[in-house]
Amino acid sequence: MKQYDYLIVGAGLYGAVFAHEAKKAGKKCLVIDKRSHIAGNIYTEPVEGINVHRYGAHIFHTNNKAVWQYVNQFAEFNRYTNSPVANYHGEIYNLPFNMNTFNKMWGVVTPAEAKAKIEQQKAEAGITDPQNLEEQAISLVGTDIYEKLIKGYTGKQWGRPCTELPAFIIKRLPVRFTYDDNYFNALYQGIPNGGYTAMVEKMLDGTEVRLNMDYLADRDALNALAEKVVYTGPVDAYFDYKLGALQYRSVHFETEVLDTDNYQGNAVVNYTDAETPYTRIIEHKHFEFGTQPKTVISREYSAEWKKGDEPYYPVNDEKNGALYAAYKKLADAEPGVIFGGRLGEYKYYDMDKVIEVALDVAAKELA
Ligand code: UDP
């Protein structure tokens, strides 16, 4: 008999959901994290009374009612709706691509006029069967929007030209022929009042958590503590990169406190030109309609991940997809270990999907 039923590596959303479910099922868990705090990349910390999203903006949105009800057990969500603004060399456009964007770009007023304009640009570009992100984008919204709002931003975010990226990335972004600036096509949306850290704290209530513990540096001793492991770190690191390193995109933030109550008038402003070195500026107080006298902003820079950096996004191209498939085989054959989350499964998961998958896996595991 070992001391714990589960050792959960990573105190992020996946680990916290699994821990909560396991505890409910009467299992004993130990959650460890190599950082000095819980909540993984959804961690928020107060600065000047403002909850700062330390690892980038996280806006909870889902179409899954069960997931929405699940998170609402741990926090009360506000009515925040993501409506980012794009700044292209000082020209301002509404996102996602909708009638407000089309009107500003072309002066069109009706959906029929907007569709005609897009069809015309798509025909001029000669695209019938889109093969990559560039072709997909042009066929969805035309060349002008592609050039001003997609090409530079996507190139900066992924460090690759749009012609080398898969079409599906852009499908995350809705195209709408209504005057609706709501970025997400989701039934439920909001930010937890008091920040995400408090929400994860509630999920982990009653579970032992040890911070500043690097699983990979001490895995034999840690494995000895528990019957099974739930591993939410990078899958390639788990296997000591023996098949090669998966690529990730990393982001870093330049965060500043400013002596003004309102810097940019919106939580998220994307800089969609190729020349501005950062991809976006987040003004954190607007996620919670803050009225503090000061403000906190974070400029977000995207970079290729190298060892020692924080991995954020899996790179969804063929080469990495094939390498991940090989790691997945090893992972499936690894006895007593469950691999989960964005890094453990090398998937561009949103938060709601992470919860859905963690609940599914937990239900099967704990049945
Ligand atoms: N995108 C874009 N211009 C924008 C915002 C997004 O071209 O102003 C594209 C870009 O290819 C990006 C994708 O849409 O990689 C997904 O963006 P999203 O904001 O969903 O990414 P996340 O918030 O997960 O970083």
Structural summary, described in words:
The protein has helices at residues 13-24, 65-72, 99-106, 111-125, 133-158, 196-203, 219-223, 235-238, 318-333, 341-344, 351-366, and strands spanning 4-9, 29-32, 44-47, 50-53, 60-62, 85-88, 91-94, 188-190, 208-210, 226-231, 248-258, 268-271, 280-283, 295-304, 313-314, 337-339. By secondary structure, the chain is α/β, with parallel strands linked by helices. Helix 1 (13-24) packs parallel to helix 11 and helix 4 (111-125) packs across helix 5 (133-158). The relative contact order is 0.21. Uridine-5'-diphosphate (UDP) binds next to helix 5. Residues 86, 95, 149-150, 153-154, 157, 169-170, 172-173, 270, 272 line the site of uridine-5'-diphosphate. It comes from Faecalibacterium langellae. This is UDP-galactopyranose mutase.
Give the key terms.
367 residues, alpha/beta, 7-stranded mixed β-sheet, 16 strands, globular, binds uridine-5'-diphosphate
How big is the Rg?
22 Å
Tally of helical runs = 11
Low-confidence stretches: none
Shape field: globular
Estimate the helix proportion, in percent: 25-40%
What's the story with the biggest beta sheet? 7 strands, mixed
